[in-house]
Each structure stands twice: as C-alpha cells, then as structure tokens.
Amino acid sequence: MLNSDRVVIVVRPFGMIFRIVVFAVLLLTSSLVVVLAADTSILRGVLQVDSKMDTEGSTSLVLLDATGRRTTLYGDLFVEAQLRDRRLIERQWELEGSFASDGRFEIYKLFTVKDGQRYRVTYYCEICHIYTHEPGRCMCCQEETELREVPES
Ligand SMILES: [Zn+2]
C-alpha cells in the first residue's frame, strides 16, 4: 500500500515533465520549420564561366547577378550536374536556397529562365520514357538521355 503510494507520487511529476518536454519539442520543431521557410532566398543570374569551369566538379560554381555580385554555390549531385551541363552554360538561372554561415549559397531548387518562364531541367530517355535529373546515360537502357527543359506548372 505504502509502496504504490510512493510510485504514484514519483510518477506524477515525471508525467508533468514529460508533457512539458513534448510541448517544448513541438514548439521548437514548429518554429524551426517556420525559420527554415522564411530563410529561403531566391538568387537570379548567370554562371560565371571561366577557363577553369569544368564538368568534373573540382572548381566551385559561382553565380553572377545583375548587380555584379558573385555568390559561390553548392548543392546536391543533381544540382551540381545540371549547373555544370555545358549545354546550359548561357542560361539565366533562378535558384531557391539559403545562405550558409560561410556565405555560400546552398541550392534547394533550380530553374532555367526563358522569357520570364521558369523551367525545370530534366533528362529524358525516349526508349524508356523516363525523366532523370542528371545528364548522361539512361539508368535503365544506358542510351544517351536528351536534355529537356520543362516549363514549371
Ligand atoms: Zn532508357
């Protein structure tokens, strides 16, 4: 009898602490999501092309905006492969992402822009009828894929 009373006394405050912790976690994660969304910026410009610009990925990608400001870019494998696609070297880009603490810009989404319309960069295999996000051979039949810029709908 005495023992179960003690258990109740011990459990109750823990239950309260647990609820407070859950509430705090919910509060933190929801505010984090808001911060992330508010942090997303859009950069527009062209890639700075120099003789060292390569498709291997050993030089950094740099965006040159209309005011002449240069921003070093980075992103996942697909993002980098699309930006380094030589067929797209003259394109105007619109990049969604956020600035890292070192001043570089991390790209989440990228679009080419033609006549004010945003296009997604895709690579299409006519044999398999599949789209991929990376230039090169089809992952399925190994034939060369075709670059297609698809209007964002
Ligand atoms: Zn294929």
List SSEs in N-to-C order: HEEEHEEEEE
User: How helix-rich are the residues, as a percent range?
Assistant: 25-40%
Bound molecules: zinc ion
What is the number of helical segments per DSSP (H or I, 4+ residues)?
2
Q: Give the DSSP E fraction (strand runs of 2 or more residues).
A: 25-35%
CATH level-3 fold name of the largest domain? OB fold (Dihydrolipoamide Acetyltransferase, E2P)
Return the domain count.
Answer: 2
Largest sheet: 5 strands, mixed, barrel
Structural class: alpha+beta
Mean pLDDT: 84
Strand order of the largest sheet: 1-2-3-5-4
Anisotropy-based shape: extended
Regions with little confidence, pLDDT below 50 for 5+ residues: none
The radius of gyration computed from the alpha-carbon positions, rounded to a whole number of angstroms, is 24 Å
CATH architecture of the largest domain: Beta Barrel
CATH class wording of the largest domain: Mainly Beta
Strands, total number: 8
Tell me the distance between the termini: 69 Å
